[in-house]
Write a structure and sequence with these properties.
The protein has 251 residues and is an alpha+beta fold. It folds into two domains: 110 residues, Pseudouridine synthase; 121 residues, 2-Layer Sandwich (Pseudouridine synthase). Helix content is 20%, strand content 31%. The protein has six helices and twelve strands. The longest helix has 12 residues.
Length: 251
């Protein structure tokens, strides 16, 4: 392992990193490099007391903020509770999104009809959720039509962006839970994923990236930003064939 992660910013109180895709934030089975928190502890040392201020799904890449001490963690959590934080994501979705910009305002809750225990959906009795979007580029390649979106997260529900975009008819490319065939996720977990299913996904990870977090920190407007990984940008620019190498199966 040449490096633990890409560091965006570090000072006495904060460590901000660009989390790679296919890395969980919290430990599961595996070695000391298998979770972001274990890598953070390796970087900071054995006496460190790191606290995640925000978290990302395993396959979502991008900005993760870590407080190095309980005092900074408490300060930042209070800021997060006020919802005075702007979170901007990049996503590649299936199909050409018609509107140049818009707001998806739809409550989300548990998907009781799904075989996937962690899957949620839009439902009338769910928790209020709002996602804004802007089209960066519409493009077509051999596998079909796609749209590159810039997404603003106004509420922070589990899987919110993925649920809202799928509900609008434009699931994120590579999404194994909210794509057209949820058996792909079950096949991955059960280690029976076929070559044909991998081709359906087009990418080894879903194409969602936490690009920027903006908030006021100790009387200063603070912005932390990170570029997507090369496989993400290559797909937008048309320089990769379907299903790039690098597939792994979660432990």
């Amino acid at each position: 392992m040449d490096q633990l992660f890409d560091i965006i910013h570090e000072d006495l109180d904060l460590l901000v990193v660009n989390k790679p895709a296919d890395l969980v934030c919290h430990p599961t089975k595996g070695d000391i490099f298998s979770s972001l928190i274990s890598r953070v502890r390796l970087h900071l040392g054995k006496n460190a007391q790191p606290h995640f201020v925000n978290r990302l799904d395993r396959e979502t890449s991008g900005v993760v903020i870590v407080a190095k001490n309980p005092e900074a963690a408490l300060e930042l959590r209070r800021i997060w509770e006020t919802r005075a934080v702007r979170k901007e994501y990049l996503a590649i979705v299936h199909g050409h999104v018609t509107a140049d910009c818009g707001m998806i305002d739809a409550p989300v809750g548990k998907d009781t009809s799904s075989r996937i225990a962690i899957k949620d959906c839009v439902r009338s009795d769910g928790v209020p959720s709002k996602t804004g979007f802007r089209v960066e580029r519409r493009f077509t390649r051999g596998e079909g039509d796609f749209t590159f979106l810039r997404v603003d997260l106004f509420t922070g529900r589990k899987h919110q962006i993925r649920i809202h975009l799928a509900h609008s008819g434009h699931p994120i490319v590579g999404d194994k839970i909210y794509g057209d065939d949820e058996d792909i996720y079950l096949a991955m977990v059960e280690r029976r994923l076929t070559g044909e299913q991998r081709k359906q996904l087009l990418l080894p990870n879903h194409a969602l990236h936490a690009a920027q977090v903006k908030f006021s920190w100790r009387n200063r407007e603070t912005v932390f930003a990170a570029k997507p990984e090369s496989w993400f940008l290559d797909f937008v620019n048309g320089t990769t064939s379907h299903f790039a190498s690098g597939w792994t199966t979660p432990a």
